[in-house]
Fold each of these.
Amino acid sequence: MKQADLSSPYLKALLYGAPGSTKTRTAASAVFVDDFSPVLMLESAGNPMSVRSYVPQPTIFTMEKLSDYSLPYDWLFKGQPADHPFIKSCEAAEIDLPKQPFRTVISDGMTEIQRFAFRAIKPGLDVEPGALPTDIELRDFYKVLQIMTNWAYKYIQLDMHVILTSLENEKQDKVGNIYRRPLLWGQSQGEIASYVYLVMRLTQTETIDTRSKSVVAADLEAANASQIIGFTRATSSFYAKDQYGMLDSGGQLMRYMYDPTIEEIWSKILELERI
């Protein structure tokens, strides 16, 4: 047990959106913020190629299975000690780490981590492209829920900035209404989103739906000049969350950001704390 910290010393965020909505690039823009750098990125199907132009770049590890996340977590949790097995494994692989401790960890590809979890409990799912995977039973979903919530809670509770990314799940109800949420199956969708303080939906400006357009109707000129909109407040058609209470220049609660970056997000949070 410890005293709750209400001063938001770290960014705890989940960024979700469809492919091409710049989740990876937005998360990795943390490298340009002094308070966030150096940045460790643990990616699984997140396509780090999209940040190859960044200078500096995050230290990027491609994760290939669920157990790959245990060693870096233990190292981060214990304060990044120099004699940890994680350091020795990096040296063996000739991977150079920055001299300064990491201030940010990015998990790029939560949707794929969920697949890792299924493969961990059902080895018959990891088969050759021409083979048939084994069937998934209801009890397997319960087990994956346990795995995912345990994974997310422990990483999010680290004493550093934590940024997660996820693909977007789109569902249509019986009357044709479309709803969008992070692509995390079952209860994981809501529980993992509840652990972080900020859930931002990223979407390409040209593809936003009618209801979202009504949200930005007062600022269409800026919307047309931007490529990406990051929504920070939920609408009837998609989920978002801002427990930081970010403010814009007019003192109104923000609904969205154009072409968001981690620097812009963090500056808005600090702006609120100074008031």
Amino acid sequence: MRFARAWRLALFAVFVAVTANPAADAAASSDRGRPVKVMTRNLYLGANLNGPVRAALSAPSPVAALVAFGNANAKLWQTVVATNSPARAKLLAAEIDEREPDLIGLQEVAVWRSGPVELPNPNGSPGNFALPNATQADYDFLAGLLTELRAVGQRYEVVATTIEADVEGPAFLGMPGLPGYTPLADHRLTMRDVILRRSEGDIDVFESGTGNYSNAATFSVTLGDRQFKFTRGYNWADVQVKKRAFRFINTHLESELSGYALAQAFELMSGPAQTEQPVVLVCDCNSDPLNHTIKPGDTVPHAAPYELITGPFRFTDEWLLVHTAAEGWTSGLSETVDDNDLSDIDHRIDMIFGRRPDGSAIPADRGWITGDSARTPQGLWASDHMGVVMRLHP
């Protein structure tokens, strides 16, 4: 983890120097203007990427690591197929159709591609192993969602797209060179965060941008000495509705280690969040404000990124202006998203934050959780997360 002592001291100084968030006064503002609906929605990439990497890391030798990785990756792909992103896109489109948000921040907007299996060379050199070079398109989550939105009469346009992790690995059964070995495919995942704007609305976009965090989780697997780097990032748009302008930011912070998520949040707060305009920030923040435990191998509590955003950088958790935390649980479903009910949705990591230039809250008068009332004919939920929509008055 890249947490130098100097960086920690600088961050501590920021915490000490800046006052807490005065949300209550701003929420009472009478000059509210035309409300704006914003949404944060994690589409769910279709499987848990931890399986192949962890299988390889726990193997006793490079050969065993390769076999463990390939077999686990075959299982991962079975899960991606079973979680049926085209069917789930119909549910996601129905959620958006019901609430008609003006701006949407999407996370885990995956592109899955496949190609021939490429293993390390017999001499131990990596060759093309784990290079993201597969080109056969299997699933494009953004194209699928936009198609389903048009089918229900809703037109949204892409404002900004950030390319994040782009990783690939082989999937096979058995062990290369032995009877029963069955090569399947190299599977490539390209992750994106996307901002959408409702085409029929009156929100104008003047400028937009994207970026990737310098702090990224990297796992070195002894399979031809390749590294799997899970890059994350953000995108933003300067928009105006009527005469009111604000910056809309969308991001997805690291899920595996809160230390990385905290460092990424600090980059965001020090970068695109530094503006003289009001800011609306939507995210899968992977930070539960009620969870102060520290994962094994981590450096900070799970709540730390949230506390950074709402503490020294004075953003207001907009949901709490109109609801209690317990009314806003958004995460906890299983990898297969075919849970019988929503009893495992028991924490809140999908957030909408607001901040005016003086540090006060952006008034909010309504908030909704989406994705909690419908399943596909197969019994799948739209995502392993719920969505959040807020009606704000920037």
